[in-house]
Structures are given as C-alpha cells and as structure tokens.
Hints:
Structural class: mainly alpha
Distance between the termini: 24 Å
Order of helices and strands: HHHHHH
Radius of gyration: 17 Å
Number of helices: 6
Number of strands: 0
Shape: elongated
Amino acid sequence: xxxxxxxxxxxxxxxxxxxxxRLYLGRGVLAVAWALAxxxxxxxxxxxxxxxxxxxxxxxxxxxxxxxxxxPDGSERxxxxxxxxxxxxxxxxxxxxxxxxxxxxxRVFGAWAVISGAAQVxxxxxxxxxxxxxxxxxxISGGLSVVVGISYNIQAAGDNxxxxxxxxxxxxxxxxxxxxxxxxxWKSRQLRSRTI
Length: 196
C-alpha cells in the first residue's frame, strides 16, 4: 500500500508515522548533542573538530537510510536515498576541506546544507498529507538550510570566516526535527482518540 493511498488510521500509516517519529526525535537529539560537542571543540580546525565535521553529514546519511527502510512505498524514497548518498560524499569532502581551514569547510558545509535542505523540502512536500502532520517543521527546516547554506558560502569568501555558525545550524536543525516528532506524536494520539 503506498503512502498516498493509505488512510490516516490504517496500520501501514500508523507504522510509518511511528517509525518517522522515532527517526525525527533521534535525529533531533543527535543534532543538538553534536552542536554542544562542536561548540567546545572547533576553536582550531584540528583532528577533533574535523572528526566532528565528518560525523554530522554521516548522521544525515544514516538517517536517510533508516528513513528509506522505514517508509516502504512513496515517491519520496528516491530523494531520500539520493540525499543519503550525497551526505556520505559530503562527509568525505568536509573531512578533506578541514586541512584548508575554516573557509573551505564553510564552502563544503554550505553546499551540502543547500542540497540537503532542498531534499528535505521535497520529501516534506511529498509527505504533506494530514496523516503525517502536514510536515511544517520539516519544510521550514529544509528551507532555512538552503538559505543558511548560501550564506555560509558568502561568509567563506569574506575576511573572517568562522565555524561558530555550524553549532547554531545543528541546534536549529535539531529543534525542528524534535518539533516534527512532537507533531507526529500529537497526530498519532489524535487519531487514536478518534478510534476509541
């Protein structure tokens, strides 16, 4: 049964909503934890900072794989797997960019933020039905990621590029994922109360 034809209270849609809730909540908490770790470790682009920079896109890559497996049908699956592959490549690229300092890291991270954000918007639009809570947090987060990614590339071309902004980016993304999880949880409770 595809996500487009499943009713909001069908077992398939309930399972999909539950899987996405766990995924979004876990991803949000990991993003906030990463932001806290990176905030205290990026003063110099050393081995610890580069490792953390590599880890962040890998979180997105693994999350995309889990998302792909959690949602067995739906047109968004191709976008999800493509985003996962691009995030894995971004992890390699940002690791290599770390040798050049802040500006190259911001360029790579910014480019990845644009692509990943665009993918998030596409997936959110394809999941906009009432059963998955309209996906407003996902859409807002993806749109902001595109805008912020562009701003990182502008900042990288300036005189004083700084990686401070990456902790803010991860915190914001984490909060939006947690909000999406809460919205899915609220939707699940609402639908359960209707069937009692």
